[in-house]
Write a structure and sequence with these properties.
Layout: E1 15-18, H1 26-39, E2 47-50, H2 54-57, E3 62-69, E4 74-82, E5 90-92
Parallel strand pairs: 1-2, 3-5
Antiparallel strand pairs: 3-4
Length: about 90
């Protein structure tokens, strides 16, 4: 949990979920999507989700795809979709 310093008023810090679908079955992934939708109604400036689960990522407002090139030990990041036409939420299929 992040510690709030009080300077942001009622605004919460960004909400970050790293691989939240690990060990979840399809029904619980659907529930997680509902939870993320509920969190988006809070005063949270951003919700960042890193996931390999396409079902969760497809509902994002925006997504980035990260791919690692093992021969050069470097990664590239490209926009993969966005409901609003903007880029922002990440997904890594490596």
């Amino acid at each position: 949990m992040a510690k709030r310093d009080g300077s942001g008023g009622d605004r919460l810090p960004p909400f970050i979920l790293d691989e939240p679908t690990s060990f979840l079955d399809d029904d619980h992934v659907d529930e997680l999507h509902s939870v993320i939708q509920a969190i988006s109604e809070w005063n949270v400036p951003q919700i960042l989700v890193v996931s390999h689960n396409d079902r969760l990522i497809q509902n994002a407002d925006a997504a980035l795809h990260a791919q690692k090139d093992p021969t050069e030990d470097a990664s590239t990041v490209t926009p993969s979709h966005g409901k609003s036409g903007t880029e922002g939420v990440a997904g890594d299929d490596d």
